[in-house]
Structure formats: structure tokens, C-alpha cells
Amino acid sequence: MKRNLTLLLLNFLFLTGYTQNETPPIYVGLQVSPNFSYRVLSNNSGESSVDDDIDYLNNREEAALGYRLAAVMGIKVTEHWTLEAGIAYLRNCTRLNVTFGDDIEPRRGFVNDNEYTEGELETCLSYVGIPLRIIWSLGTEKTKVLASFGLSPQILLAQNTTAKLSNGDNTEEMDIDSFEDATGFNLSPSLGLGAEFKLSENFFLRAEGIARFGVVNINEDSPINSYTYSSELNVGIHYLLVKTPQGDS
Questions:
Q1: Fewer CB within 10 Å, N side or C side of the chain?
Q2: Which residues contact 111 (CB under 8 A, 6 or more apart)?
Q3: pTM
Q4: Which 3 state secondary structure label does DSSP give 181?
Q5: Kind of pairing, strands 171-176 and 118-129?
Q6: Lowest mean pLDDT among 11-15, 27-31, 117-121, 137-141
Q7: What is the rounded end-to-end Cα distance, in angstroms, of the chain?
Q8: Model confidence over 70-108: pLDDT tens digits?
Q9: Contacts of 89 (CB under 8 A, 6+ apart)
């Protein structure tokens, strides 16, 4: 019975708006998305000293520029709804402004080094992911308004921390070991709002603002829970492999 209901639902999604003799529109696309990422932190141990560390990090940590590259394929299952999937490479970065003195605390960087007067640590997490989205659209043949909900499972490829240190006259940049090890898996839901513009018979452009939310603690072995949030401008050029059936707008 459940199998029959599933098949009925799939038939409804793919055939609503199109007859059985029509093929739903299918497209491929390339997307580029500059993003700003930041972390939401919480106490995983209950100790008050960890709350002090979180306050310190919240006061000195800020969002940093990253990016996302994706290749996608989509199918328009009804007049207003589209399913999209693909593969993406993304890089989420945060920046920590460090201080200097005699208080040695690994999370706070080179605080015991008197050679420098100011500095920052930029940590970037690189992932490969499978972005899945459902997109709602409304408008004319040339211009449409878009709203989307997505979910992207992601696998960690690399974690890098770069230190930029200055003594007022010179600035030195170096790669260092990260103070916290990120977990290998992340899951990122997203909400988007944007527009679609027809460029030619086969090409169209999309520009969207997308917010991505952290639902997986990426520092499981740390007393501080860390969830990555980001905002991005997603711009993509897409090509219709199968056009809209004649008469559909």
C-alpha cells in the first residue's frame, strides 16, 4: 500500500502541468556564490570558564569572506515548482582577532609572543557537498521571482588556519595548526529569495540571496559547541537541455 502511494505521489509531481506525451523542462547550470560565514557558539560542558572563553571569542571573532562553486541540474516538475540537485565545493571562513601578553590560551592565538603587536587568525573549512533544493517561481516568461528551500549534506575536505601578524612596521603571514579539529560531516539547510532572467531561448540567469543554517556541531570534541551559519549571493548561468513545452510560460 505504501509503495502504491509513493508511486502515485511521484506521478503527480512529474506529470502535473504536463501530459504524459510531454517531457518536463530540464536544465544544467554553473553557480558562483561569495559568502560570509560566522559561528554560533554554546557551552558543551556546563563549566563557567567555558562561558568566559565563549564571551572572549564572540567579542573577537568575525565573519570572513569565503565562496561556493556548484554544478547543478534541475527539472521543472510543475508550472511553479522545480527540483534541483548537484555537486558543490564550498569554503567557509571565520576570523579571530588575537591579543598579546603573558596569558597563554591556545584558543586566543599567539598571546605569549612579544614580537608582534596585533594579528588575526583566519580559519577556513573546505567541503564537498550535494546541494538539494526545491524552488518555487512566479512571473512572466522573461522574469520570475524565486523562493527556495534546500538541504546540503557536506563532507570535510580540509581545515586550514592562517595567521597574519604585525608589529606595526611589517606583516607576516603563515599557516599554522588549527586549535580545534572540525568534524568530518556537516548538514546545512538553506532558505533563498531571488529572481530569474531569461537571456535567450536556452540560457537564463539567476541571482539569489541565500541564508544557510548550522544544525550539526562541527566541534564535537571541544567543550564549545560550534555551528556554522552563512549568507551568500548565489549567481548562476543555466542552460535548458529540454525546453518548456509549447504553450507553457
A1: N
A2: 98, 99, 100, 101, 102, 103, 104, 105
A3: 0.82
A4: coil
A5: unpaired
A6: 11-15
A7: 36
A8: 999 999 999 999 999 999 999 999 999 877 654 445 454
A9: 68, 69, 70, 126, 127, 128, 129, 157
Q: How far is CA 63 from CA 34, 93, 99, 186, 195, in A?
A: 12, 7, 18, 19, 26
Cell numbers 586566543 label which residue?
Answer: 108
The alpha-carbon radius of gyration of the chain (Å, integer) is 23
Spatial contact of 149 and 180, defined as CB atoms under 8 Å apart: no
Residue 182, classed as helix, strand or coil, is coil
Amino acid at 149: F
Tell me the C-alpha distance between 2 and 44, whole Å.
41
Instruction: Please give the grid coordinates belonging to residue 116.
Output: 608582534
Query: Which residue is it, cell 556546563?
Result: 46
Q: ∠ at Cα 182 (181, 183), nearest 5°?
A: 120
